[in-house]
Automatic annotation (TrEMBL):
Its EC number is 2.7.13.3. This is histidine kinase. It catalyses: ATP + protein L-histidine = ADP + protein N-phospho-L-histidine. It comes from the Bacteria.
Amino acid sequence: MTRTEYPWLLPSAMADPELPGDRGSRTRRTVRDWAVDITAFLCAAGIGLAAVVAIEADKTTPDVFVLIDSLVGAAACCALWVRRRWPVGLAVALTLLSAVEPVAAGAWLVALFSVAVHRPFRPVAFIGAGALLVAPVQPYLRPDPSTSFVASTIIGVLLVLLVLSWGMVVRSRRQLVVTLRERARRAEAEAGLRAERAQRLAREDIAREMHDVLAHRLTLLSVHAGALEFRPDAPPAEVARAAGVIRDSAHEALQDLREIIGVLRGPRDGDGDRPQPTLATLDALVAESRLAGTKVTLDNRIADPAAAPAATGRTVYRIAQEGLTNARKHAPGAEVTVTVTGGPGRGITVEVSNPAPVEPFEQVPGSGQGLIGLTERATLAGGRLDHGPEPDGGFGVRAWLPWSS
């Protein structure tokens, strides 16, 4: 026989393979462990004292046997302090002892409870079967004058079954708690990984966005610089004009670069040749949503949408697009309100909100990755974005983005 073949014979100080996080796997007792152990000891001692009193009441029992019973019962109760480390061995020893020693009955029941809590079903079944076989032996060898043999046997069997059942219920509850904690920890880790992946994918789109915004200006700068290089004899006026174009293009390229750093969500694969959305194309987005059956109210208070910075306009467009998409998925039939306010020096505030759905519908699960990407976009652009349920049961997305004067 090896320890790998019978792992339940190992001390409880070693980890229980079926119950991760079992208290028995600790090397030091906690305050709760001390309280439980003291309570178990007192209960066993109380049952033992009651048995001693009953034995003393029987005048036919010699005093020397009463003294031996008391000492053996006290030793059995003290042995309970090792029940967390050796639950199986202690239960087997007390089962055999209780066959001839009624004072050890309390400690025996506590040991059976410990086995049911700290060990899987197989060893509990073996020890429980032995306990049921021993239950009629003690009243046969040392009968209680006030109770019949049949009644004593039935009471012993019921107590064994009750204690083992209670212990297995406690073990099942602990297993459930451990499982739920592991699932919660795993779900939290997976959510963190999904969020990191969404941020990584969003940042990968920066390169595409930079190409779309900066390619024209850098190409113009390169052409004029090349002209100066290959025409050193050009008239001063033409050289000055080309230098001015280079300076302006470089300045605008740097300004666009500052804005594009905050862009995380750009066009996906296959959209690189399509015109980039701006604040001026917000009306087309709303019209498209209306054609799809969504009730949309647009309140655009920007006097000149075309004057808004390109990157900021795209961000506003993406926020409105994501808000309309989420409203169509999670609140079909509800009217969506899109409000855009602000101007140079004040920044742009965009808000997309919808009330609670008025009709029952099949809930569409969402991953939340779109809102994560929008939050990252707004944050890196120097703005902020908030989203969440409204007091009336609806949902709202509100963002502020800078717009330099």
